[in-house]
From TrEMBL:
Boundaries of every T-SNARE coiled-coil homology domain copy: 26-88
Keywords tagged on the record: Golgi apparatus, Membrane, Protein transport, Transmembrane, Transmembrane helix, Transport
Subcellular compartments: Endomembrane system; Golgi apparatus membrane
Region (Disordered): 1-34
Membrane topology according to the record: Single-pass type IV membrane protein
Annotated Polar residues bias: 1-24
Ribosomal protein is among the record's keywords: no
Xref: SMART domains: t_SNARE (SM00397)
Name used for this protein in its record: t-SNARE coiled-coil homology domain-containing protein
InterPro entries recorded: BET1_SNARE, T_SNARE_dom
Entries under PROSITE patterns matching the protein: T_SNARE
Length: 119
């Protein structure tokens, strides 16, 4: 069966009116079989590659969802902490407590810097 949109037209190896030789037909059939085997191997390699890509995409999607969940939890925790800090600053004597907290943070960072520098 021939398709109309298929551009390949086989070339005739024999003059018109004579019968084709069986040897040339067999060689063409062998080449066709070899090409089909090569195509089958390439299709198998592509199938394997697409399966590996799909597995990698699923794995990375799982990692990204985990990171997204962690970020949501962290932002919630940070929001609650900032609310508490603002509430503490608004209470009486909050400026002094904020100064002590800022001083504490500076001392901690200074100690960490010294530790990392002279390690």
């Amino acid at each position: 069966m021939r398709r109309n949109n298929y551009p390949y037209q086989p070339l005739s190896n024999h003059p018109s009116g004579s019968n084709p030789q069986p040897a040339s037909h067999d060689s063409l059939e062998a080449e066709n079989e070899q090409a089909a085997e090569e195509l089958k191997q390439k299709i198998g390699a592509l199938k394997s590659l697409t399966i590996d890509i799909g597995n990698e995409v699923r794995y990375q999607d799982k990692l990204l969802r985990g990171i997204d969940d962690d970020m949501d939890r962290t932002s919630g925790f940070l929001g609650n902490t900032m609310t508490r800090v603002v509430r503490l600053a608004k209470q009486g004597g909050g400026a002094r407590q904020m100064f002590y907290m800022f001083l504490f943070v500076l001392v901690v960072f200074f100690i960490l810097w010294l530790t990392l520098k002279f390690k």
